[in-house]
Task: structure prediction
Amino acid sequence: MNRSLPLLGRIGKALLWCFTLVYIYPIVLIFLSAFKTPADLAANPFGLPEAWTGASFSKAFDTMHYFRSILNTIGIAVVSVAGVVIFASMAAYAISRRNNRFYNAVYLLFLAGMIVPFQMAMIPLYKVLQGLDIINTYQGVIFIYLGMLAPFSVFLLSGFVRGVPRELEEAALVDGSGMYRTFFRIVLPLLKPAVTTVTVLNLFSVWNDFLMPMLYLSDSRKATITVQLSSFQGMYYNDWSLIFAGVCLIVLPILVVYLFAQRFIISGITAGAVKG
Result:
C-alpha cells in the first residue's frame, strides 16, 4: 500500500505532463509557423524555421490595420465588461438580499439566459437593433454584450454576495449609510475576487468573439481585431504564415492581461466553487 502511492503519484505527474504538452504544442506550432515563409511552412510545417523572418508580422500588422482594430476591440470590451460588472453585481446583491418570490423569479430568468444559445437570437436581435436605429454602431454591439454576459455574471456574483456577513451592512446602516453607499463602500470591495474573475472571463469572451461584431458591424472601419483576421482567408488561396502571425498579434495583449491577473482568476474561481 505504501509503495503503490508513490507509483500512483508518478503516473499522475506523467499524465499531467502529457496533457500539458498536448495543450502547449499547438501554441508553440502557431508561434513557430508565424516566423516561416509560406514556402518554408509548406515544405516543413512541423519543424523549426529554416530562416527566422518577421515579414509575416509586418504584413499582418498593416493588413489588419492593427492599431485601429485593436482600439475598436478595446473600446467595445472595456465598456461592455465595465457595464456588466456594475449591473450584474448590483443585481446579484439585490437578488441575494431580497429573498422573496419576485427576486427568485428574476434570478431564474437570469439562469434561463445561460441556456439559450446566441444563434437562436441572432436574427431577432438584428431586427431589434434595426428598429432602434443602432445597427452598425458600437452601442448596438455593447447593448447585446450586456445582455449576453449578464446571466453568468449574476450567477457567479450571487454566490459571493451570500458569503458576505449581513452584520457589516447592518452596522453601516446604523451609522447612517444608505443602501447604495453600503453596497459600493462595504459590499463591492469584499467581492474583489469574484469581480476580477467576472471581469477577466468576460473580457476573454468579448475579445475572442468573432460572430457578433461580424454580424452587427458591417463598416470595416469599426471592425474588431478578430474580424480583421478573417480577411486573410480567401476562397482559393490562404497565406497560413500570415494568418498565424495575425493570431499571435491578437493573442499578445490578452495574454499580458492574463499574466497580470492569473492569481486573482484562480483565487476567484476556487472561492466561487466553494461558495457557489
User: Anything to note?
Assistant: The CA atoms of residues 108 and 228 lie 38 Å apart.
